[in-house]
Amino acid sequence: SELLAIILTLAPSQTRGSRWDELSMISLFAQWVGLSSAGVLCLCRRWLAAIAETRAAITSYLLLLTTTLVITLLAIWVNHSLRSTHGAVALFQAGAWESSFLLRNMGISAIVSALILRYFYIRHQWQQNVRAEAHARLQALQSRIRPHFLFNSLNTIASLTQIDPDQAEAAVENLADLFRNNMADANHSITLDDE
Questions:
Q1: What pLDDT, on the 0 to 100 scale, is given for residue 156?
Q2: SS3 content of the chain, % helix, strand, coil (to 5)
Q3: Lowest mean pLDDT among 17-31, 32-46, 179-193
Q4: Among candidates 3, 1, 7, 9, which has minimal Cα distance to 29?
Q5: pLDDT, tens digit, for every residue of 79-109?
Q6: Are 33 and 8 in contact (CB under 8 A)?
Q7: Does residue 127 carry a pLDDT above 60?
Q8: How far is CA 118 from CA 23, 52, 55, 57, 113, in A?
Q9: CA-CA distance, 29 to 23, in Å (whole number)?
Q10: Closest CA relative to residue 174, chosen from 191, 193, 190, 150
């Protein structure tokens, strides 16, 4: 929002005031819009996570635009209440400024909100791809380890049958328990403590 405030300040404008004053006002407004939008999305986070991605994206976009509209209307109301003491000419000039201010803010909000939501969507897709790739690598590694582990375990049990049959029987039962648990939790991570 600060980068946007600087860009808007450097853009040509009709105001004759100081650029620093203009930067401070745009910055204040942008911060209010940005923080309020983040707050609204955080409050709606659980509800948005429960609906389909497309519907959540459209709803988020509309929430961002609505938040911008509310903050803009509040800014116009504050400006109107401050100018009402300056007479009818100031109110007439304020009416034209208010409509252009509203249209400008909604246009900028529409573009910036779409860009931000697109960024978050791409980031979300990237994170899902990273998780899926890590899961696929883990599955591939497990499929390579299991035959070697089984082969080594059976050789150990075969050698134990001649030395200590009771320990061999316990090893077979433990191996059966291990494979039963492994098949039951094939899609879940196992903690080191459980392992």
A1: 86
A2: 85, 0, 15
A3: 179-193
A4: 1
A5: 777 766 554 444 445 566 678 888 888 888 8
A6: no
A7: yes
A8: 27, 16, 14, 9, 8
A9: 10
A10: 150
Closest alpha carbon to 182 in 146, 137, 140, 141: 146
d(CA 111, CA 48): 21
What are the distances in angstroms from CA 175 to CA 73, 184, 189?
Answer: 69, 14, 19
CB environment 36-45: b (16+ within 10 A), e (fewer):
bbeebbeeee
Q: Provide the sign of the torsion angle of the four alpha carbons 40, 68, 60, 127, taken in this order.
A: negative
One-letter amino acid at 136 equals: A
Dihedral Cα 23, 62, 67, 8, nearest 10 deg: 10
